[in-house]
Design brief:
The structure holds 2 protein chains of 2 kinds. Chain A is α+β, with helices and mostly antiparallel strands. Chain A has helices at 2-22, 28-34, 41-55, 63-72, 74-81, 130-133, 146-171; strands spanning 61-62, 82-83, 90-104, 108-111, 118-122, 177-187, 195-205. Chain A has one domain (39-205): OB fold (Dihydrolipoamide Acetyltransferase, E2P) (Beta Barrel). Classes of the chains: A alpha+beta, B alpha/beta. Chains A and B meet through α7 of A and α5, α6 and β11 of B.
């Protein structure tokens, strides 16, 4: 009789333990706060362009110095100053400089160059990953998927086109001195320095 | 009776231990799970991965998911229960395949994604992916130049649940949409499939007989679209743009049938995945979560530098 009661007690305890471990009660508010927020590419792009990038602007190499180094020792210049998220030929550089405006077209602000290079600031077609990758500040591992990081490129490019360029382009005129920080793309296997296109991330007229 | 049960239990435990020690002497096994073998590009990817695994001293087996996530799940369960030590994985669905990779991870089996991505930062040990977006930026620039900034075109999308489909489309449109005289008159999925692309193209041509170009999210669809154009006697008037660098697309560029493709490097992707598995077995754990591999534009101007699936 005592053995039977003991068996029932053990069974009841076991059933209780199973039931207790099968059900979890949590506050709905706790669960909601733990939910992963969807990635906000616009917010990320704005933070990158206006906070992260200016705080590391010292990394930008003066453009004429970069061009000189690319002429004399391209391998070393690529190794020291270029970045890219993907393994491949296209590499990106963060550059700075000043220049006198030689000409303004619908698509570019052309600068009078101290070298043989034709240096121009893009104002119409701001595309690609140049502005995203040039600083080396963004890592693929920050993002859940490649769609997000590519959307970041598009949002950075949109901000440059709608917020960085228009105020300067509206008042820029031939002969003005312009200061810039920007990004350029060069092919590692086919370095062409005669036509340098800068995607601007900072622009100001210094007159 | 009790003594017999205890002896039996000890025997089972002993047999289990013995099995493990035998396993450590055997070469490690790598499962290569591929979305489909109905596309030569994926056949090349899978076979290259198997070849590299063999070179590194491992056994491998290729599993064909036939673009079906449920079949892919069966392959993973099979791989886990059969004692595979790593999975080189070309997923069928960016979101739907996460559960399969997670299952392997929970069984302490590393997963290395090849070419296609899964929407999880940690289910796979590493993901080796083509930089589709950048590749299609270059494709978009060439498309604009070839069409002299004006004309009508259609777009054939790949599988809509695959990230590559949208990365390619978005890269392309980030350039082409800047030109108002280039008008996309239709955009439809053909699931990266040659036969489906031919059917879709036939129907699109009936509604849009005056198009100047078709942009396809992969070369299989480009070849299917070309077949439909050829049957409708429009192959000379409509320019075909693909993506992948498949052998038939490279030949077609040489013959002037296809205008351009974007060369992914399946050999680099597959060999990197197999090498990562080898490094994992030898103790390495700090792999990049994502490793993008650059894509190169292939046109009649540089075709002499390329062969199917890579550079000469």
């Amino acid at each position: 009789m005592l053995l039977k009661v003991g068996k029932y007690v053990v069974l009841i305890i076991a059933a209780g333990l199973i039931a207790y471990n099968s059900v979890y009660i949590k506050k709905l508010s706790e669960l909601r706060s733990a939910e992963v927020k969807p990635f906000n590419a616009k917010e990320y792009a704005r933070d990158y362009l206006y906070k992260k990038l200016p705080s590391s602007a010292g990394k930008a190499i003066e453009i004429n110095e970069l061009l000189a180094q690319l002429e004399t020792n391209p391998l070393s210049a690529f190794s020291k100053y270029s970045h890219s998220l993907s393994e491949g030929d296209s590499k990106y550089f963060l550059v700075s400089g000043t220049g006198t405006i030689a000409e303004i077209s619908d698509e570019y602000i052309f600068l009078k160059s101290k070298t043989a290079a034709n240096v121009k600031i893009a104002t119409e077609y701001i595309v690609g990953n140049t502005a995203r990758d040039a600083s080396g500040l963004i890592s693929m591992d920050e993002f859940g998927n490649s769609m997000d990081i590519n959307t970041v490129s598009e949002e950075i490019n949109k901000l440059i086109k709608t917020e960085i360029i228009p105020p300067v382009k509206a008042k820029a005129k031939k002969g003005d001195l312009i200061a810039f920080k920007g990004c350029i793309e060069l092919s590692k296997s086919d370095v062409k320095l005669d036509n340098i296109e800068i995607i601007p991330v900072f622009l100001t007229i210094k007159n | 009776m009790k003594l017999f049960k205890v002896l039996l239990l000890l025997l089972v435990i002993f047999a289990g231990c013995n099995g493990d020690s035998k396993k450590s002497d055997e070469p490690k096994k790598i499962a290569i799970v591929v979305s489909t073998l109905n596309n030569p590009w994926f056949v090349f990817l899978a076979e290259t991965a198997a070849k590299k695994a063999k070179e590194l001293g491992y056994e491998s087996k290729i599993f064909d998911s036939q673009n079906n996530t449920a079949l892919e799940t069966d392959h993973f369960e099979n791989a886990i229960s059969s004692g595979y030590d790593a999975v080189l994985f070309n997923p069928t669905d960016a979101t739907g395949s996460v559960a399969n990779a997670t299952k392997a991870k929970n069984a302490d089996i590393p997963v290395f994604c090849m070419d296609r991505e899964i929407n999880s930062p940690d289910a796979a040990t590493s993901q080796i992916l083509s930089d589709n977006y950048s590749g299609c930026i270059e494709m978009g620039k060439y498309f604009v130049k070839t069409l002299n900034k004006k004309g009508k075109y259609v777009e054939l999308l790949g599988i809509v649940s695959d990230n590559n489909t949208w990365n390619r489309s978005k890269g392309f449109h980030s350039i082409v949409d800047n030109y108002k005289e280039l008008k996309m008159v239709a955009q439809q999925s053909a699931d990266f499939d040659r036969n489906k692309a031919m059917e879709v193209m036939e129907s699109l041509l009936q509604a849009n007989p005056d198009i100047n170009a078709v942009f396809c999210g992969n070369d299989a669809m480009a070849m299917g679209a070309y077949q439909a154009l050829s049957a409708a006697n429009k192959a000379d008037k409509v320019k075909v743009f693909g993506f992948d660098g498949a052998e038939d697309a490279i030949t077609s560029i040489q013959q002037g049938k296809v205008t351009a493709t974007a060369m992914q490097f399946p050999k680099v992707i597959a060999e990197t995945a197999a090498t990562f598995a080898d490094e994992y077995f030898k103790g390495k754990r700090d792999f990049p979560k994502k490793k993008p591999v650059a894509v190169e534009l292939v046109t009649k101007e540089n075709i002499e530098n390329y062969i199917g699936y890579g550079k000469k």
